[in-house]
């Protein structure tokens, strides 16, 4: 059977524990299928997942994403074991490589061989969740002699985030699902082809893969203001090597170069101006409820199966969330 369409909500765990719990409870009551959040400054996602698991009863709870560099496989496996139990099987462990800025500047870690590190982490954690005694020597990780109690159903699924070709292929081959983020819509067919290649390499079909996307969506009557907010917020993302290379790979080489040059020169105007209106429209869905509904349905037709709504304007968040409740939206 094809993977069902799901509508999900980003809950901003940086807003505080109680506020995040209340957001998740509201989403569950409003008919959303999932709640997802990232591992960011001031809001540990795995701890928050436990709080939400104890405060909700139906929605899936996913991380998009936890950087593999910040925790060992044994820590991931033991944490995921508990989260699987307290959520009654509703937890999804979303892993990824993150970026040089977060790993090296924030955490003082070496951002080396990200694809291999993500793959090896996934392989080790999955074997640990199955109760196997660790015996692994890889290129980035090694572990011997660790064992934890197995989960009868194998434990939580592990989804992997990817941007460019090789990571997307590995995510589909090794992961139970694939997580996408901040891509221009024109690049999606190219990305889906790499996901198909990876799925087949892993003995799966593209239709078997749940493809999760964090969509930047804002229902608003003030699109120019929101586009300026988008530029201000996401220009630093696209200045990082990971996302800058991705933007170029997606077909926007000149924009990526302008962002690099502006960032290096500490010229904020040049950096943000490189995210032109047409490019912002390719990445984000900003406009009326009807426009945003149609855009999400278009992504569904293109292969996305789980649609996480994210936005950057608190002033427009209520209208956006209401527009995608079960009462107001369906596929």
Topology:
Elements: E1 6-10, H1 17-29, E2 34-37, H2 45-55, E3 60-63, E4 66-67, H3 73-86, E5 91-96, H4 100-106, H5 114-129, E6 135-137, E7 142-144, E8 158-161, H6 165-174, E9 177-181, H7 188-201, E10 210-219, H8 223-239, H9 241-249, H10 253-264, H11 268-273, H12 277-283, E11 284-287, H13 289-302, E12 306-310, H14 314-323
Parallel strand pairs: 1-2, 1-12, 2-3, 3-5, 4-5, 5-8, 8-9, 9-10, 10-11, 10-12
Antiparallel strand pairs: 6-7
Helix pairs in contact: 1-2, 2-3, 3-5, 5-6, 6-7, 8-10, 9-10
Key descriptive features of the protein:
331 residues; alpha/beta; eight-stranded parallel barrel; two-stranded antiparallel ribbon; 14 helices; 12 strands; 17% strand; globular
Short synopsis of the structure:
Helices cover 48% and strands 17% of the residues.
Helix content: 40-55%
The backbone outline, from C-alpha atoms, is globular
Give me the number of helical elements. 14
**Range of strand content:** 15-25%
Average of pLDDT: 94
End-to-end C-alpha gap:
17 Å
Count of extended strands: 12
Question: What is the topology, as strand order, of the major beta sheet?
Answer: 1-2-3-5-8-9-10-12
Radius of gyration: 19 Å
Helices and strands, in order, run as EHEHEEHEHHEEEHEHEHHHHHEHEH
Could you name the ranges where pLDDT drops below 50 across 5 or more consecutive residues?
A: none
What profile does the largest beta sheet have?
8 strands, parallel, barrel
Protein structure class: alpha/beta
């Amino acid at each position: 059977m094809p993977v069902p369409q799901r509508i999900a909500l980003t809950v901003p765990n940086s807003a505080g524990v109680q506020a995040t719990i209340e957001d998740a409870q509201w989403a569950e009551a409003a008919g959303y299928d999932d709640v997802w959040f990232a591992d960011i400054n001031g809001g540990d996602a795995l701890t928050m997942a436990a709080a939400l698991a104890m405060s909700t009863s139906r929605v899936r709870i996913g991380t998009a994403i936890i950087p593999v560099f910040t925790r060992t496989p044994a820590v991931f496996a033991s944490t995921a074991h508990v989260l699987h139990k307290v959520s009654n099987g509703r937890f999804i462990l979303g892993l990824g490589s993150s970026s040089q800025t977060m790993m090296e500047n924030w955490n003082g870690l070496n951002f080396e061989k990200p694809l291999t590190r993500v793959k090896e982490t996934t392989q080790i954690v999955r074997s640990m969740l199955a109760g196997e005694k660790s015996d692994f020597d890889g290129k980035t990780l090694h572990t011997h002699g660790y064992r934890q109690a197995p989960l009868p159903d194998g434990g939580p699924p592990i989804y992997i985030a990817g941007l460019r070709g090789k990571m997307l292929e590995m995510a589909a081959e090794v992961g139970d699902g694939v997580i996408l983020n901040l891509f221009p819509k024109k690049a999606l067919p190219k990305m889906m082809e790499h996901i198909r290649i990876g799925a087949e390499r892993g003995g799966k079909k593209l239709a078997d893969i749940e493809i999760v996307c964090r969509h930047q969506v804002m229902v608003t009557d003030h699109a120019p203001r929101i586009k300026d907010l988008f530029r201000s917020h996401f220009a630093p993302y696209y200045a990082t090597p990971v996302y800058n290379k991705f933007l170029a790979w997606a077909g926007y080489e000149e924009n990526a170069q302008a962002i690099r040059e502006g960032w290096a020169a500490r010229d904020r105007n040049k950096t943000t101006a490189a995210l032109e209106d047409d490019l912002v429209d390719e990445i984000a869905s900003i406009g009326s409820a009807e426009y945003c509904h149609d855009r999400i349905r278009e992504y569904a037709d293109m292969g996305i199966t789980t649609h996480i709504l994210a936005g950057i304007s608190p002033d427009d968040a209520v209208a956006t969330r209401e527009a995608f409740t079960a009462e107001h939206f369906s596929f």
